[in-house]
Amino acid sequence: MRLLDLVFYLLKSNSKVTVKELAERFNVSTKTIRRDLDKLSVLGIPVLIYRGPSGGVEIDKNYIIAKHILRRSDYDSLLLALYIGENISETISESLLIDKFKSVDRERCSKLLKNLEQRFVMDLFEEKFDSKNIVCKEINKAIDNKSFINIEVGSENLEVYPISFVLRKEGLCLYCLNEEYMLILINKISSVRINNKSYDKNIISYNENKEKFKQIL
């Protein structure tokens, strides 16, 4: 992610930036920044490095990342996806991806956003979901390790096998297996603890099992 942030930062800069300034900006060593710049060059990004007292780093001003990667329809579709994402996900909002797109083509991006805000109102949940909160992080670890978890839901303590997250009109949910398949609203889960019990049998996916499970919403 730092490489992408570095590209956008250099594109936004109106003048050369020193390696030391970049290191301070991204909270890494100057050696790490130099390695990152080398990687960008290998990837075809035209990084210009000037030596001497008035030296610094910049990206060739004739280089526009969007034109090299995206067609107009691709750009519009991606911006729509980001607009929807920022309105439903705290994680996407905090990543400021739309602001990064503005740094590439501010006029076009601002015009598209204005049209979206006027014509595409988002009113799905009372609050955005945060896929990086501690509950979701622990669930993700358990899914990676195929482990059971103990969760607190209200006054209940349940042992479940987490299968997947499901985004529904009620909000972000956990699809899981106890003695039966269950769908639990993430906001109802107050704590998660991974245990040592694992599961290696076949499971029925959410899409194959719609409406055939217990719901705690």
Automatic annotation (TrEMBL):
Coiled coil: none annotated. Keywords: Transcription, Transcription regulation. Residues 1-55 form the HTH deoR-type domain. InterPro entries: CBASS_pafABC_assoc_protein, DeoR_HTH, HTH_11, WH-like_DNA-bd_sf, WH_DNA-bd_sf. SMART domains: HTH_DEOR. One of its GO terms (molecular function) is DNA-binding transcription factor activity. The keyword Transcription regulation applies. The keyword Nucleus does not apply. This is DeoR faimly transcriptional regulator. It comes from Terrisporobacter othiniensis.
